[in-house]
């Protein structure tokens, strides 16, 4: 189960390059339900995500590079490319800052995953976080892959 809140970014955190990062490429074979392929640095995955906004099922299966490349030719919509910075927050939480590239630039989003719905509801975001867009499906990557970024 994935429990996650998503925000726009009001201002970039200071020197995001100091944090661990991942180069991510991902595309969607299906968006209802969500079936995604992703390359994150040197690892590849096939992911199924159930319906929902803040809380939804998520299953990840490893893929070989060859399987990823084969499926990449079958995606429906844009191949999303972004850099994800992993920024530690208070306690055990991590802000996943996504800086989109290509036709989705200059979009930046930040996500935080939680252990429980109660923890998510009690979360107070840092001041560099912007508007909470958790309940807006138009910021889901699956939506962005089909329709692009609408400012």
Structure description:
The radius of gyration is 15 Å and the shape is globular. It has 3 helices and 10 strands; from the N terminus they run E-E-E-E-E-E-H-E-E-E-H-E-H. Strands 1, 2, 3, 4, 5, 6, 7, 8, 9 and 10 form a 10-stranded antiparallel beta sheet that branches. The N and C termini lie far apart (30 Å). A hairpin with a 7-residue loop joins strand 8 and strand 9 (108-113). It has a single domain, classed as Hypothetical Protein Pfu-838710-001. The model has no long low-confidence stretch (mean pLDDT 95). It is mainly beta. It has helices at residues 65-72, 117-122, 141-147, and strands at 2-9, 20-31, 34-40, 43-49, 55-56, 58-63, 80-88, 94-100, 108-113, 129-132.
User: In the residues, how many domains can be counted?
Assistant: 1
Q: What's the average pLDDT? A: 95
Number of strands: 10
Count of DSSP H/I helices: 3
The biggest beta sheet is recorded as: 10 strands, antiparallel
Q: How much is the radius of gyration in Å?
A: 15 Å
In the CATH scheme, the class would be Mainly Beta
End-to-end Cα distance, whole Å, is 30 Å
CATH superfamily: Hypothetical Protein Pfu-838710-001
CATH topology (level 3) name: Hypothetical Protein Pfu-838710-001
What share of residues is helical?
10-25%
What's the shape? globular
Computed structural class: mainly beta
In percent, how much strand structure appears in the residues?
Answer: over 45%
Low-confidence stretches: none
N-to-C SSE series? Answer: EEEEEEHEEEHEH
CATH architecture title: Beta Barrel
């Amino acid at each position: 189960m994935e429990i996650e809140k998503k925000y726009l970014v009001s201002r970039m955190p200071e020197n995001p390059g100091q944090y661990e990062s991942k180069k991510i490429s991902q595309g969607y074979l299906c968006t209802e339900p969500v079936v995604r392929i992703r390359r994150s640095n040197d690892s590849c995955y096939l992911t199924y995500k159930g319906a929902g906004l803040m809380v939804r099922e998520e299953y990840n299966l490893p893929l070989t590079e060859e399987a990823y490349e084969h499926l990449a030719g079958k995606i429906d919509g844009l191949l999303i490319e972004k850099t994800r910075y992993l920024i530690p927050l208070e306690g055990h939480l991590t802000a996943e800052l996504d800086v989109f590239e290509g036709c989705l630039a200059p979009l930046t989003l930040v996500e935080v995953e939680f252990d429980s719905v109660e923890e998510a509801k009690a979360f107070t975001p840092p001041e560099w976080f912007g508007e909470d867009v958790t309940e807006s499906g138009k910021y889901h990557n699956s939506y962005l892959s089909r329709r692009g970024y609408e400012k």
